[in-house]
Specification:
The chain is an all-alpha fold. It is built from 6 helices and no strands.
Length: about 130
């Protein structure tokens, strides 16, 4: 699992959140701050390579300004972006993701393929 794979996962998970949010907020005016946030994130997701630092800043903005929506945001993205995004995760959740990373490193050391989704499902702490 390399950086490109992580970026693809970040794009996929974040894009799913954006699409679901657009559907749920289509009655809002296009100038509504949340709709503008969605536009900003879509624009960042379209960039290649992924501007992870700017996306991280945007995600932190979601947690700061639209806190009621944060339970819907994909936790994988918070962990994979790291940095300031980790402040929005409890220590127990970070520890569980670190355990997932250890499983990944172990698989890589043995030359085995690693499936993030399957490994995550095996950890009851992340469900």
């Amino acid at each position: 699992m390399n950086e490109t794979h992580y970026h693809d996962m970040i794009r996929r998970e974040t894009d799913g959140f954006v699409k679901a949010s657009r559907f749920q907020t289509e009655a809002l005016d296009s100038a509504h701050p949340f709709r503008l946030w969605l536009d900003q994130v879509e624009s960042l997701l379209a960039e290649h390579p992924l501007p992870a630092e700017r996306l991280s800043e945007a995600v932190c903005g979601l947690f700061t300004h639209f806190g009621e929506l944060t339970p819907l945001f994909p936790r994988d993205v918070l962990y994979l972006l790291g940095g300031e995004c980790l402040h929005y995760m409890p220590d127990e959740e970070i520890s569980a993701y670190q355990e997932l990373d250890e499983l990944r490193f172990s698989a890589e050391d043995r030359g085995k393929p690693f499936n993030w989704t399957q490994a995550k499902a095996s950890l009851k702490k992340l469900q």
